[in-house]
Amino acid sequence: MESPYKANILKGKVALLTGGGSGIGFEISTQFGKHGASIAIMGRRKNVLDAAVSSLQSLGIQAVGFEGDVRKQEDARRVVESTIKHFGKLDILVNAAAGNFLVSPEDLSPNGFKTVMDIDSVGTFTMCHEALEYLKKGGQGRSSSSGGMILNISATLHYTASWYQIHVSAAKAAVDALTRNLALEWGTDYDIRVNGIAPGPIGDTTGMRKLAPDEMNAKFRDYMPLYKLGEKWDIAMAALYLTSEAGKYVNGTTLVVDGGLWLSRPRH
Ligand code: HXC
């Protein structure tokens, strides 16, 4: 679908996306690139990274991939530093890496719980922590008056309660807390805007394949005001709004992009 934005709204910006090689992260990489940004993507799987980088480059987008796991602080530091070496600065950090599986609390080992917390929550904090030096006003490649941006991909599961998702609900609740607290403290001290997006069910993603097999998709329609799944494009357009000048006064918010699903009830 054609973008409603001008093609230069992220011109000259450098974005680093964890999980930027697949799913929602890759669509954000693509749309950021199409709107003028240079793209660094971080991921664990070399083949996924390579394919994503080639695909971006075939669109004329400046792109580079760095292997790394957000659970390892040394990987986070190395990837942030490599991004700076490659592009000279960092303007936008997108935390899109996530882990998920369906499991009941009684079947979930504490290590399984911790694994998702480590990827989603601790990983997000670690990336923010390692990127601060470059995102803050006056950081390498930045002016002394303007800081960069952080965008955290969250969910709506934890607004209520979700079956078989206790680990992800806890992890994304923590991500939302990081968004608010960093917006307060780093917004004030370093002029960094920190926001989030909470996607609803988005078609053609690992999340949907794992969480909602095909037979469940039809059932969603009974609940959904817009009677359809979202598209990765919808999330990328929200990401463009939040990270471009259009969103310059938005800080500390997590924008729900779910067609109204989380607050809806079945018709009766
Ligand atoms: C129960 C499980 C499990 C499962 C893993 N574990 N899978 N427990 N059911 N299906 C437990 C293991 O038993 C182990 O605990 C611990 O978790 C670590 O497992 P590993 O396999 O060693 O972990 P690892 O190889 O690091 O893989 C991480 C992962 C994996 C999260 C388990 O699924 C992954 O890498 N996912 C990344 C891609 C992904 O899932 N993306 C989708 C994001 S969708 P023990 O005790 O046995 O040692 C998304 C949407 C959210 O985030 C919102 C939706 C609305």
UniProtKB/TrEMBL annotation:
Coiled coil: none annotated. Its EC number is 1.3.1.124. It comes from the Eukaryota. Gene3D superfamilies: NAD(P)-binding Rossmann-like Domain. GO terms for cellular component: peroxisome. Keywords: NADP, Oxidoreductase. GO terms for molecular function: 2,4-dienoyl-CoA reductase (NADPH) activity; oxidoreductase activity, acting on the CH-OH group of donors, NAD or NADP as acceptor. One of its GO terms (biological process) is fatty acid catabolic process. Pfam families: adh_short_C2. It catalyses: a (2E,4E)-dienoyl-CoA + NADPH + H(+) = a 4,5-saturated-(3E)-enoyl-CoA + NADP(+); a (2E,4Z)-dienoyl-CoA + NADPH + H(+) = a 4,5-saturated-(3E)-enoyl-CoA + NADP(+). This is 2,4-dienoyl-CoA reductase [(3E)-enoyl-CoA-producing]. It comes from Lithospermum erythrorhizon.
